[in-house]
Amino acid sequence: MLDEFSRQVERKTGIDWGPVAWRINCLAHVINLATQALISTYSSVPHYNLHDPSTVEDSVSSLRDEIGLIRAIAVKERSSAIRKELFLDIQWRMAVSRPLQLILDMKVRWSSTYMMLHRAEACKEHIDVFIYEIGIKETNLNKRRKIDSLKLSSFEWQNASLFLGLLGYMRFAPALEAAAAKVDEYYNRTDTSDAYIVTMYLTPDQKGVHFKKHWSADLRLQAEQSMERVFAERWNKLHRSSSSTASASAPRLSRKVSTLLRELSDDEDEASAIKNPSAEHGGSLSDQDKPYWQEYHSYLISKEVVPLGMSTVTWWGLNAARSPTWASLARDFLPIMASSVSSERAFSQTGITISPRRNRLKADVVEALQFMKCLLKHDLIFREPGPSSLVEEDELAQDLAEMTLNAQEASVLGPWDLGLLDDDDMDLYE
C-alpha cells in the first residue's frame, strides 16, 4: 500500500517519498505485539474465536495452563444470560455488595488479558462455586467431566497471580525473552527512518541526551551525523530560492565594504583580518562548506527552559523565529503520530455507522454523520453566544433604542407630577 502511495506522490508532485523511511510504527501496536509474544509463549491456548467457540475448550483439554483455563471459564460464564445471572446470584449469596461479571480478553488489546486475570483473581472463590453448579446441571457425563476440569487448583491460582504481576520468576524467563525479542525487533526498525532521531533532537530541553546516556560512541556519532545531514538538506532547501539573488549581490557588497574599511584603517593586517572575518572567530574553510553550521550548532549548545505544562509544539511556535530551519523540521516531524489508536477509533466508529442496512452510504454522508456524532457527544451544537464585539454592539444599540423611545414618550406626556397639582397650588413654586 505504501509502495503504491509513493508512486502516486512521485507521479503527481515529483517528490521522492520513501515508503520504508517514512513508515512509522504505532507505539501502542508494538507494545501489544511484544505483550502478545509474552502471553503466547507462556500460554499456548488461542484467544476466543466467535465463529468457533469450541476452540478454547479443545485447547484447554490438551494444553492446560492458567491463562487458558481462566479464558475458558470466562467464555462459559458469558455464553448465555442464564449463566451470567447464575454467576451474579452466587455473589449475592456470598454477601458481595457489588457483583461483577468476568472479562474475556481479545488479541488486539494486551491490557484485556491483564484485566481478565485481575477480575478472575478477585472472583476466584465465586468461580469455583460457579464451575461446580454448572457442572451438576449438565446431564451429559462427558461435558460434565470437561466442565469440572476447568477448576483451577491452588497452585494454578498462585501461578496466575504471579504471572499477573510479572514478578520476574525464572519460570517466566522464556516468555519475557520473547517479549524482549519483539521489542528489540521493532527497535531495530527505527534505523530505517530519521524521524525518531530528529524528533528527539527537537525536544528543546533534551536535544539528544538519550543518545549520550544510553548509546555507545559509534552509535551516538551516527545519530549526530544523521541529524546534521537532515538539517543540511532542509537548510539548503529553504535557501535554494534566495541563493541566486544573494550570490549575485554578495561579491559587489563585500568588495565595497572591504574597500571602505581599508580606507579607514592604516593597519594592513587589520584590513586583511576584516577581509577574512572568519579568522578572528577561529573559523576555517569548513565554515564555508557548511553555511548552515551557525544555526545548527547554536541550537544544540544552547540551554533551553520549557515552562511547566508547555508542549514541544507550543514552544517551537513561540521560538520559530530564533531557529527557522529547526522550526521547519519541527513542523514536519512533530505532527507524526506516535500511536494510530485514535485514528483507528475513528475508523471503528465509521464501521459502526455503516451497518449492513446502511451499506450504500457515500463518503460525504459518512463524514457528515461522524461530525454530527462528535457534536452531539461533546454538546457542541446548542450553546450561548460567546463574548464578541458584534454582540456588545447589538446590546448597546438595543439600549440606545430603548432610551430614545422612553425620552420620546416622556416629551409627549410631560412630567408625571404635573397632573397632580391644582391651579391654586402653583403659587407655591413662585
TrEMBL record:
This is HAT C-terminal dimerisation domain-containing protein. It comes from Phanerochaete carnosa (strain HHB-10118-sp) (White-rot fungus). Keywords: Metal-binding, Nucleus, Zinc, Zinc-finger. The keyword Zinc applies. GO terms for cellular component: nucleus. It is found in: Nucleus. One of its GO terms (molecular function) is zinc ion binding. Its main location: nucleus. Residues 265-287 are annotated as: Disordered. InterPro entries: HATC_C_dom, RNaseH-like_sf, ZnF_BED_domain_contain. Residues 296-373 form the HAT C-terminal dimerisation domain. SUPFAM superfamilies: Ribonuclease H-like (SSF53098).
